[in-house]
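Incident log, structure service

09:12 report received: a user says their structure output differs between two submissions of the same chain.
09:20 pulled the input from the user's history:
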Amino acid sequence: MPAGGQQIAESHGGTLSVAEDAAVNAGIEADPDTLEVTDEMAAQMRPFRRAGRPPLESPKEPVTMRVDADVLATIKATGRG
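09:34 re-ran on a clean worker, output below:
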């Protein structure tokens, strides 16, 4: 038993005195927004997956190319970019 005769409760991810643990549990029970997760509910839970862009069948590849200025001017004059 710790100094001062206090019992210790290990719950809620830390070490609390029995009085602190009781106060935490009372606060949880008094909160109407809390939900006790049952074993059945936990078994049905799935990991959260963020939706994103679907993968492309043929993604574009980055390319570095050096060309003469007149070739670049011709490409730019005949295309979108």
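09:41 both user submissions now match this output. Likely a transient worker issue. Closing.
09:42 reviewer note: The chain is about 35% helix and 10% strand. The mean pLDDT is 82.
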